[in-house]
Amino acid sequence: MAAASAPLIRVGIVGGTGYTGVELLRLLSRHPNVKLHAITSRKEDGLPVAEMFPNLRGAVDLCFQTPEKAALDQCDVVFFATPHGVAMAQARELIAQGVRVIDLAADFRLQDIAQFEQWYKMPHACPDVLASSVYGLVELNREQIPGAKVIGNPGCYPTTVILGLLPLLQAKKPLIDLSDIVADAKSGVSGAGRKAEVGTLFSEASDSFRAYGVSGHRHHPEIVEQLDRIAGQPVGLTFVPHLVPMIRGMFTTLHLRILPEALDTDFQTLYERHYATEPFVDVMPPGSLPDTRSVRASNTLRISVHRPQGGRKLVVLVVQDNLVKGASGQAIQNMNLMFGLPEATGLEQVAVLP
Amino acid sequence: MAAASAPLIRVGIVGGTGYTGVELLRLLSRHPNVKLHAITSRKEDGLPVAEMFPNLRGAVDLCFQTPEKAALDQCDVVFFATPHGVAMAQARELIAQGVRVIDLAADFRLQDIAQFEQWYKMPHACPDVLASSVYGLVELNREQIPGAKVIGNPGCYPTTVILGLLPLLQAKKPLIDLSDIVADAKSGVSGAGRKAEVGTLFSEASDSFRAYGVSGHRHHPEIVEQLDRIAGQPVGLTFVPHLVPMIRGMFTTLHLRILPEALDTDFQTLYERHYATEPFVDVMPPGSLPDTRSVRASNTLRISVHRPQGGRKLVVLVVQDNLVKGASGQAIQNMNLMFGLPEATGLEQVAVLP
Amino acid sequence: MAAASAPLIRVGIVGGTGYTGVELLRLLSRHPNVKLHAITSRKEDGLPVAEMFPNLRGAVDLCFQTPEKAALDQCDVVFFATPHGVAMAQARELIAQGVRVIDLAADFRLQDIAQFEQWYKMPHACPDVLASSVYGLVELNREQIPGAKVIGNPGCYPTTVILGLLPLLQAKKPLIDLSDIVADAKSGVSGAGRKAEVGTLFSEASDSFRAYGVSGHRHHPEIVEQLDRIAGQPVGLTFVPHLVPMIRGMFTTLHLRILPEALDTDFQTLYERHYATEPFVDVMPPGSLPDTRSVRASNTLRISVHRPQGGRKLVVLVVQDNLVKGASGQAIQNMNLMFGLPEATGLEQVAVLP
Amino acid sequence: MAAASAPLIRVGIVGGTGYTGVELLRLLSRHPNVKLHAITSRKEDGLPVAEMFPNLRGAVDLCFQTPEKAALDQCDVVFFATPHGVAMAQARELIAQGVRVIDLAADFRLQDIAQFEQWYKMPHACPDVLASSVYGLVELNREQIPGAKVIGNPGCYPTTVILGLLPLLQAKKPLIDLSDIVADAKSGVSGAGRKAEVGTLFSEASDSFRAYGVSGHRHHPEIVEQLDRIAGQPVGLTFVPHLVPMIRGMFTTLHLRILPEALDTDFQTLYERHYATEPFVDVMPPGSLPDTRSVRASNTLRISVHRPQGGRKLVVLVVQDNLVKGASGQAIQNMNLMFGLPEATGLEQVAVLP
């Protein structure tokens, strides 16, 4: 843990009534270098946070406040756990006041503004801030994050797909057919957020399994933008998300075509070496089959690499907790880097199993 | 429904203490043309079936009996809801006595005996009976089933993969790359059977998602044998099964490469026409996203056909109840055909939703 | 089954977009004496019912219609699967046109209008119709139901509590302390209906257990009114409902004080005799422990009677499917009686297990 | 947290292959004052613990060892996460070597040996050690625990029932009818342990609810022994446990009869005052309805007090995580006291919600 004598980071959270908000609070309330300064909700002004989220009783004493009362300009960093579009409206002013911004929504994920506007159906409010923001996938952008004023925290699906492909894309020679990447992804229901909707009612989503967004999902352009950049060429991605009757957890199955000239690659070793020093990426031993519960409530992402029957297909399995490594934990990982803390500070929780 | 005046089919069930057994009983106890004659279990001899399965109280009066007492030779048909290897040991004698056999295990699924012996780790007891048996996928072999003495009831995964591909494989011209078929399949936990095992305990399988059998699954050779035969050439199949925290239900996502010369195919129409007269295959309207609950406890299999962003990949989604169309319902569908009944007799139940 | 030659009952359903609506459709679409005439929804006018509820594809061809188009006056019977207050606004006109009414909401459950108005926060629209209506608990009011023009279909909790107590209350001599009846009840989430609400989202209700309505629940006065009437004296009831992370199913645990003078009662025999001829009430053998899945998707209610350590407390366990015996199945049971059909017509489904 | 300079407590765990074992490891691996010395399993000798429990990968490096290799005599404290009967066979020797013992099974819970032998079907191996052991319910026996050599860690149900009643039993005057205490308790499935059994398979326990142990449960005599002692008189307890389809969590509903002379008691204040300084017992505000997820994976137990309609019954609702406060967390709470650490050391985790 970091030295107790360092000054505490004053943290604000905008829009803390959803699942990424309560998860930020669960983690930050035990972070040794953080002081929770304010949490905003226009609608719930005055309500003790712990009344909405009783798991926080005794751990978080704050009440929701309107943004006006919250004095966010006195924070060192503000997390936006809001719907898309909120962070970009406030980011410029905050950073002008020396406050750093970590957006858990999509406002700073896509550098391609046309793509942003097509998928999120709104104009971008601050293209210049976007241009200077950093995509907060630590394992990809560890060098740029400490200096960033604004972080676009990655989407949950993109985190699994990009980290599942990174060792392949950054290898010295081409290994897989980049024109035919299949990501068959499965998410727990909390990924849909804490919105009152029929489709995610218990009686609708329990004891059933379904696909969604097959014709197009907002995470598709985000993944492609990153993969294109990493690969230095356009990739072809088929991305099919599914809904699993579980609360937390994300499981992505990557089906990849090994290039003929790469059939003798030792993919297991490739992955192990690539992630050898990463604190939150765990390449499992050969033959392992990860399950989402092995990362439940922790910031770890686990990968296992398979080559069925030693053939021409590579199957990469990736698991994470969508609310931690896929959202709030990753955001705190970014914060730690931005403030010079050891990357794992406050994120050492062991996954909860069973 | 069939005329009530027809003589009742005397039915025996061997090994009815598992989930396919209780599901056979649920359905057969309300089948208008069936008289349940006997159900065997060496271990549970004398126990009323309804004591083990309380849903059957008032519907099934039988007690489990040893095979010796059960007089299976007086049956018209015997279902084997047993572990692999049991049916093939008894089939020859039963059919010699004029009893027809429907095996819900794997003894009569694979015509390639070498494959059978490799995957099931036992010699085949009756290759000649196997040679004359019929693979009981009605939508594929409707003509041969009525005359069959022994039916190998298809595995649950193969049912979804084969029916999901059949319109493509039986089309007049090649449509997809047969060397690269990806079946990313997801099953409810009941597919693992009613065996006391740690891995399928509630506390292990609930609120989690995982893959299994990535390096090899017994249904892989079964699927490939059928696809090879239908396509008239070897196919390349990547088959990755996953375990979903739900009781019943199977969802298979097929990722297919459309051949360049077939890019202008109207796949929706192809599927609709192919299955237009099938009572238990429902091709959903364009854009539909099936969920497994829409077939829960029914014999219907639903398919939807997608082409994300109008590109080169075809994504076919298939759902069924693994215990009904994937096992016991399909077995009864076979029985109906074997005894000249309308195919849907006793299988008209509407799926249970929610 | 009833003779196929009888004229079909023309059935209308008002407000079929909820769970009791789809459950009525599941059951009625296979009822041999029913013709579905119309189903209304002002909001969904024109939408095929099977598009909202895909389990009905191929089983129900109707579209939702506005009440104006639906010509409900041409029905023989109309089910109201609506929020409280709708049926009472339309009942008078319908019965004037010879249409019989079965209300699955609360408009005709409470004869005490003051209680109704206190708990449901609305004036009663037709006290005279209410006065002539019958409380549709068949096992209690089998004689009055055939002649009823309007049926108040019982609430789900009241069905379990009343049927769990009926043999005691109708015994020849006092058996339990009527001033201290504890009903600790547990319901699946579908009891909350198909409303978009945060509290019943999957991520809120799954993998958790909670009580609700401890300070007062609308079913409390309904239960008390019936118990008072049956007992012929005021009873004291503690009713604590809980929410179980399952879709369907209701489990009520009754904790009762045996009167000192009744300690030698054979309660098992009392219950067995009381319900000996009931088609849908199953008194289980001594020592049985019912589970809700044993009645899933069926109209059966099961009871077991316990006396822990042979002491002074009687523990009665009651299970039902809240959507069938607790709602739509019971409504059809009423319809069968009203139209002179065998009580079990169309309700013979065996429970789905697993 | 405790000073990092204190010598680390060397901890051994006997039988760590079950759920209380893995939960001890999750918590102890992050405990600042603990060094994990050994974990034993005769069957799994040599297996890395993290291979059986992948959530521990990177957090626990130990392998299972046979007891012979484990050198438990070098530990400061040994936890027994074993079946009943194991701890009492080894306790005498361990404490002779200066090792303290915390048993998570039942060997040291019941002082009444006749009761122990009746319910656990084995003779007690060390009545003298039992006599000097302490029942490790911290909120009851905080004074005796620091000096104890052997702790009997309470059962999960007893923890909820006793703590739910304690303010009433320790009040200055009689408040409730002690002859008629009803504890209607509900537990998640992990309470049944990690044993391969049909009854707790996912397909058996999911989407269903049932009672068990109605005729007698081993926690009944444990609860009664403690209540008798606290009350100074025999109590009458009806205890009905139920199984909830959730992994973790326990919810106990206490139905109590308020004595006529105590009807003016302010029960809310009584409870709040009683537990005002307890770090792990949270008396919720009036009208609160606790859910089990609000304590998931944390050591907190929450209580809310209700008096429906202001009547003669008191309804007390108690929730805990059965594996933490109901088992492993409570055991560590005991350890902290035994070794002079602040009681909450290593147990500050915030509950995981959703």
TrEMBL record, chains A, B, C, D:
It catalyses: N-acetyl-L-glutamate 5-semialdehyde + phosphate + NADP(+) = N-acetyl-L-glutamyl 5-phosphate + NADPH + H(+). Keywords: Amino-acid biosynthesis, Arginine biosynthesis, Cytoplasm, NADP, Oxidoreductase. Belongs to the NAGSA dehydrogenase family. Type 1 subfamily. One of its GO terms (molecular function) is N-acetyl-gamma-glutamyl-phosphate reductase activity. It is found in: Cytoplasm. Pathway: Amino-acid biosynthesis; L-arginine biosynthesis; N(2)-acetyl-L-ornithine from L-glutamate: step 3/4. Its EC number is 1.2.1.38. Signal peptide: none annotated. SUPFAM superfamilies: Glyceraldehyde-3-phosphate dehydrogenase-like, C-terminal domain, NAD(P)-binding Rossmann-fold domains. CDD domains: AGPR_1_C (cd23934), AGPR_1_N (cd17895). Pfam families: Semialdhyde_dh, Semialdhyde_dhC_1. InterPro entries: AGPR, AGPR_AS, AGPR_dimerisation_dom, AGPR_type-1, NAD(P)-bd_dom_sf, Semialdehyde_DH_NAD-bd. This is N-acetyl-gamma-glutamyl-phosphate reductase. The active site is at 156. PROSITE patterns: ARGC. Catalyzes the NADPH-dependent reduction of N-acetyl-5-glutamyl phosphate to yield N-acetyl-L-glutamate 5-semialdehyde. HAMAP family: ArgC_type1. It comes from the Bacteria.
